[in-house]
Every structure is written in C-alpha cells, then in structure tokens.
Amino acid sequence: MKLKYIFQGLICGVLFIVASCSLVKDPLDTYSDVTEGVDSAGVNVVFKDKAAVLSHLTTLYNQMRDRQEHWYLDLLLVAEAHSDNAYAGTTGAEVVPFENNSIEGSNTVMNRDWNRYMEDVARANRLINNVDSVVDNSFTNTQREEIKAQGKIFRAMVLFDMVRLWGSIPVITKEAGDITSETIGDVYGDYFPAQNTQEEAYRQIEKDLLEALVSAPNNNATNKTLFTKSVARTLLAKIYAEKTLRDYSKVIQYCDAITADGFDLVTDYSDLFGMNATKTDAKVRNTKESILEAQFFTGGGNWVTWMLGRDLSNYGNSFTWAKWITPSRNLIKAFQDEGDQTRYSESIVYYQTTWSNYYPAINYPFMYKTRSAYNSIIKFRYADVLLLKAEALIMGTSPNLSAAADIIDRIRLRVGLAKLPTSVRGNKDAMLDALLKERRLELAFEGQRWFDLVRLDKVETVMNAVFAKDSGRKTLVYKFNTDSYLLPIPQAVMDQNPNLVQNPGY
C-alpha cells in the first residue's frame, strides 16, 4: 500500500492505515484497497465514488460514538480531576498526576490522546481534501460542499481540544505525499511538522468554522448527533471567548445565533442525564437543550460508564475496581452550601464499594452524568452557551451586569434556586465569581471546569488554595503557575519528531 493511503496524522510515530474496525459490533466503514484504492478503470484513487465518501463520513461520526477515550474520558480527567471538581479516583501512576499537578511528558494518557487526536485530524483531512476529486455523476456540488463542511467542523472541534490542552500544535490540513528518494525533501515536513502558534491554530479553527457555516446542515431537532451549523456557531462562540482570539461581541453574536436556531433550556434538568422509569433506556435523547451528543442504544452501549461508576443498565458489571474522577469534597460542599439539591442529585450518586481510596467504602460518591450504557454523552448544550454569553456581558468592553445576572438567574430558577442578590448584580467582580460558581454547578463533570479557570486566569487563585481546604486531595507536588495552563507534549512524540518544542515548565 502506498504511503498516500496512510493517515498522515500519526506523523509522530504511528502511521495509521485507513482501515477501521469498531470497538463494538458494527464496522466503522467499508474501506479496503479494492473498494476505495482503485476506481473501475484500475486507477488509484482515495474515494472511488460517492458511497465511499459517505462511508468515510460515517467513520467521522462514529468517532463520537465508539472512540471516547480522548475526547470524553481523558478530557474529563483534565477538566475535572486537574481542577477542584474531582480527585483522580484510582491510585494509578498515570492518573494521579492530574490530581496533584505532577504531569510529565512521559504520561501515557497524554501520549494516547495526542495520537488519537492526530488520527482524527488525518481522517478529517482525508475527507476534506479528496471529496472534490471523486468522479461520480450522482454526486452534486451541493452534496460535496455539505460533506466538506461537516469534515471541517469535526476538524475544528478536534483542533480546539488540542490547542486548549497543548497550546502550540502542528496544524495539519493536508495529507502527506509519497516518500521516495526524489520527494523526501518535499514531504519531510508533512510527516514531521513543526508547531504552529496558538493564534495560528485558532485562526485555522475559525476559518474552518466560518467556511462550514455556508454549507453545513441546519440544526435537526430530532437528531443532535450531526455536525451542523449550530455546532459550528457553538464552537465560534467558544473560540472567541478564549484569550488568543478574544472578542466578546462575537461571543454574544454567536450565542444569540444559537438561540435563533431554536435551542432552549429543558424544564426538567433530569431530562438531560436521567433514565426511564424502568432503567432500561435513556430518559430523553435529542432534547431542545442538546446541541451535539453521542448516542448509544441496545447492542452497542457506552463502555465509558464502567470507567466512571455503575452502569445502571447492567448494575453489577465491572464494579470491582476503583473508578476514575471521584467527586471532590470541595465540589460536594459547593452544592450543599448553595442548597442545590437538584443538580447535586443529578451530578453525584453514592454506592457501597470494596475500596476506600478517598471516602469510606460504605458511602462512596461517583460522578453521575454518564450513568448507563444508553445515556447520551452531551458534548455541547445550550446552558453552557447561555452562561458563556453571561461571561461576555460581564467581561466585555461595555459590561451589562444586569443582563448577565438575568441569564444566571434563569439557570438558577430552573433548579429551584433564588435569584442573585442585588449586592452581587451590581458588582463586576462579584458577578464574575457568581458566573464561575454557576458554571461549576451547572456543568459539573461535563469537561468545562479546568478550561473555565484557565480562560479567566483563575488557576493559581483557585487551585493553589483548594488543597488546604479539601482534606481529601492528594498532596500538591508542584504549585500551579502560568506554566500549568498547558499540558506537556508527550515525550514519545517529541522523540519521534525533532521539530517539536516542549511547553515551558516540563
């Protein structure tokens, strides 16, 4: 097989051949040398027809369902256990460093994630770069543009996770060519790329999303698994809140556009994460609050459940060993101090265990937002968008504290909490604190907390103080500082690519 049929994304050591099989029963796509490697005339092609393109698009979508280690499980480890929301959960040497701030480049979780993200980028590039060359009279230009738009949204989502984790990353938008004695000088940089700056990475994300808005599918109220215009707008709102591209007027613009797309808060918070009355299925899928979710059904359930707690659809399954991401005493106290029983009971549950790493085994807390093999994993939802708009109203060049308070009150009233007091509503610093607290309680165990602290420069203030206030946390190894905002680039990746430079502090 020629190298042009190999995913260029694993340029740092593992060349991933584009042939995929699922972690569950169904294959991700139908790739093979025969079906995609050649056309009917025997000429080498990437996709021989529209069906092959659609099969590869299915592969991208199935990444959201079948390969959750990096974009969900490990991202939660960073966002929750590396913040004040959770402890690592296990005593494993690769997991505990996220809790006690001792992560090094040798960490295998980081190495796995880097490689998985790069695989995802390569899959997206393969789609985006080759759709237009497919010879198929049934394949219209409109269909091609819609497919490319979905690929660009997927690539933007992957790059957004990567740039927030590692900062300067290689921004790869093309596939590598064949390596021969004649071409090695030309293609070497494709296989061993240098890093782009954070701004260059964000600009590529911005470009992908703005281009995708033209042709991506519209929001579908009955199918929230699609890379739609609404997903692109959500990501645009998020990137414009980041320090590198910060433009709070654009945050408000895209948050309002998501509202115009028809999203709203569900009335009952438990609709987002609950199960049906018989505990045989998710309570609701495709709620009006969900913007993008991965869905799971009978016969191909969500395996991440048994990494985080009990699978309530199979109560005793894989519950003999300690789980990741144990709710912290500090977070539990935050719920209790606020009197926030609704979100507390939807976020944290208690079981008896055979281990006592952080709590007595008789009454051990677990994160509860992924509670069965059939519950959706919600990647983006409207409450996050609303609170992001509140942040923009507080922190923008012309603050509107009253409008921001109205948004926070709306989130609070849904779960039976009182409105913010007047003393808070009129003070910018108090409003920012109220916003961060509301995001913490509303979005606990949804992969937001660490990135909120980084975005608003609260890491040192919050994290260096929490170890003294939370008796359950392991001893802090390194004090948090500005170098802590980014994680180390995996050492194995750096060893294989001499053009990469390690982040400061590692």
Automatic annotation (TrEMBL):
Belongs to the SusD family. Residues 1-24 form the signal peptide. It comes from Arcticibacter svalbardensis MN12-7. Residues 303-506 form the RagB/SusD domain. The keyword Plastid does not apply. Keywords: Cell outer membrane, Membrane, Signal. Pfam families: SusD-like_3 (PF14322), SusD_RagB (PF07980). Its main location: membrane. This is Putative outer membrane protein. One of its GO terms (cellular component) is cell outer membrane. Residues 57-240 form the SusD-like N-terminal domain. The keyword Membrane applies. It is found in: Cell outer membrane. CDD domains: SusD (cd08977). It comes from the Bacteria.
